[in-house]
Amino acid sequence: MLNITSSAVDTTIFAVIAVIVLGTIGTLIFFLINKIDQVKELQDALKKLKLSFNSLDEQAKLILKTDLELNRAQEELDRRLASLDALQRTSRLISTTLDEEEIFRRLDKSLMLQLGFERILVLTFDEERNLRMRVNTGFGNDQVSEITNDLLKDTSFNSVLQEGYPFSSATASKQKKEKAISVFGIPHFILAPILTQDGTMGVIFVGNQTETTPISEADEEMISILTNQIGQSLENAKLFEEVYKSRQELELKIQDRTRQLALALEKVQKISRTKSEFVSAVSHELRTPLTSIKGYAAILMSGKLGEIPEKVKERLEKINKHSDSLVELINDLLDIARIESGRVEMKFEKVNLRMLIENMRDLLMPQMREKNITFITEVSDDLPLVLADSKQLERVFINLLSNAIKYTPKGTITIRASGNDKEVNVQVQDTGAGMREEDMPRLFTEFYRVENELNQNIKGTGLGLALVKNIINAHQGTIWVTSKIGEGTTFHFTIPLEPAKLEPTNEAQKEKTEKQG
Question: I need a surface site. Which of 65, 76, 236, 287 has the fewest CB within 10 A?
Answer without folding.
Answer: 65
